[in-house]
Write a structure and sequence with these properties.
Number of helices: 8
Distance between the termini: 30 Å
Number of domains: 1
CATH class: Alpha Beta
CATH architecture: 3-Layer(aba) Sandwich
Structural class: alpha/beta
CATH superfamily: Acetylglutamate kinase-like
Strand content: 15-25%
Radius of gyration: 17 Å
Shape: globular
CATH topology: Carbamate kinase
Order of helices and strands: EHEHHEEHEHEEEEHHEHE
Number of strands: 11
Helix content: 25-40%
Length: 239
């Protein structure tokens, strides 16, 4: 057992985070950085699952807002997550980390189908499990998928890795007077309509007492610090 605050962790990374300084696509530099962060986290002795969004390739809600059928747009977004997950798997394996992509939408020859017991078996073998294609259903975001998969695998915490160092009362990249929260309850997130993750994901986390840590993934070592229980970013739990 790992001598850390959290033994099994579900790490959620946005698709936009994989772009680096580009306007779209996947940055190999970011993939290598994330690989180093994951290797450092695994060295603590715990287990890691990963959910990656697809905003760097296609976002279903954005497509729907421009006239596409929402179900079709979300299906495209879920397929786009598979591309990101395969890229992450490749980077991890090049870095010497065993990893498996499991997709909620079966696609033989590309990756494994998501089966809860098989995912738990991969953890027992010391592999990083990358959960692709969201929940497999339209109208659900990858935030909701992260909480769902975290609950299914018995994760101790959801770590949402973003471009900012926590949750603020307004966008800190736009408003210089934005105030950061060190801790929040699920109820406060919902009442204030704070952009931690979508309401479905927050409600699911609240109903199952799943803590969520929101932190800046671009600061080296932050993920490991959070796993060790240090006060990093914003902790959402209780209430």
């Amino acid at each position: 057992m790992a001598d850390t605050a959290f033994q099994r962790v579900l790490l959620k990374i946005s698709g936009e985070a994989l772009m680096g300084e580009s306007l779209f696509g996947i940055s190999t530099e970011v993939l290598d950085f994330v690989t180093d962060e994951i290797k450092q986290a695994l060295a603590l002795g715990g287990e890691l699952g990963l959910v990656i969004g697809a905003g760097n390739i296609f976002r279903g809600v954005a497509g729907a807002s421009k006239g596409m059928d929402r179900s079709s747009a979300d299906n495209m977004g879920m397929l786009a997550t598979v591309i990101n997950c395969l890229a992450m798997q490749d980077a991890l394996e090049r870095g010497g980390v065993a990893a498996r992509v499991m997709s909620a939408i079966p696609m033989a020859g590309v990756c494994e189908p998501y089966i809860q017991r098989r995912a738990l078996h991969h953890f027992q073998k010391g592999r990083v499990v990358i959960f692709a294609a969201g929940t497999g259903n339209p109208y659900f975001t990858t935030d909701s998928a992260a909480v769902l998969r975290g609950l299914e695998i018995g994760a101790d915490v959801i770590i949402k890795a973003t471009r900012v160092d926590g949750v603020y009362d307004k966008d800190p990249l736009v408003d210089a007077d934005a105030v950061k929260f060190d801790t929040l309850s699920y109820g406060e997130v919902l009442q204030r309509n704070l952009k931690v993750m979508d309401a479905t994901g927050i409600s699911l986390a609240r109903d199952n007492a799943m803590p969520i840590v929101v932190l800046n993934m671009n600061v080296a070592g932050n993920i490991s610090r959070a796993i060790n229980g240090e006060q990093i970013g914003t902790l959402v739990q209780g209430g």
